[in-house]
Amino acid sequence: RHVSSNAVLSGGSSLNPSVSSRNTDRLHDPCEVVHVVLVCVGPWAAMRLETVVKSILLTRRHPLHLHIVTDALTQPSLAELFSSWALQAVDVSLYPCSGHLDRVAWIPNVHYAGVYPMLKLVLHDILGPDISRAIVLDLDTLVVHDIADLWAHFAFLTPNQCLALAENTSDWYIPGRLNKAPWPAPGRRGLNTGVMLVDFDCLRRSAWSALWH
Q1: How far apart are CA 106 and CA 108, in angstroms?
Q2: Given 8, 42, 77, 114, which residue has the most CB atoms within 10 angstroms?
Q3: What global pTM score does this model have?
Q4: What tens-digit pLDDT sequence spans the chain (213 residues)?
Q5: What are the Cα distances from residue 59, in Å, to 18, 52, 54, 75?
Q6: How far from chain centre, in Å, is Cα 167?
Q7: Residue 166, CB-side half-sphere exposure with 13 Å CA sphere
Q8: CA separation for the pair 71, 91 (Å, rounded)
């Protein structure tokens, strides 16, 4: 996955990467739990989830809470996987997606992953009110640095900035460059939702369900 370092916020402004790089280290609380959300449905997805989780574990220095949205068929294998790993300072919560698919299944979609990525739109309801913010990752992401450095960027969001994400950097998203008809996206290349900072409390205050629908 290719994302730029200049994250675009929902309020329309941008993070300054030079400022961020100077300040994220001092924002770290060594005991703060980093929350990460992944959507994983099906055996193929479960194999990819194992890779991205291992990449997070390789460099992480903070307690971690994984929130995994899955289905009834995949859930037992995920539960067995994390039970066998017996990880320290890692909590795993599994959430069924079955009660939420109808809310997003109506959206026209030609993405190879099907309807399941659309569940990102309703994560604030799936996770419940106890989860205030999280990093949301796609399963084709590899984390090559301590994920707490990304988590620290929440400090730069204002109370009205609910989302932080980056612009696509690949020319594949430019019509006619590498692909005659890429997925429609705002702007020149569009924004990449494969790596997001999401303030769920902010979304709930903003009546997000009515806004996106």
Answers
A1: 6
A2: 8
A3: 0.83
A4: 433 333 434 334 444 444 444 455 545 678 899 999 999 998 889 999 999 999 999 999 999 999 999 999 999 999 999 999 999 999 999 999 998 989 998 888 777 777 888 999 999 999 999 999 999 999 999 999 999 999 999 999 999 999 999 887 777 777 777 666 666 677 777 788 899 999 999 999 999 988 888
A5: 22, 12, 9, 26
A6: 14
A7: 18
A8: 19
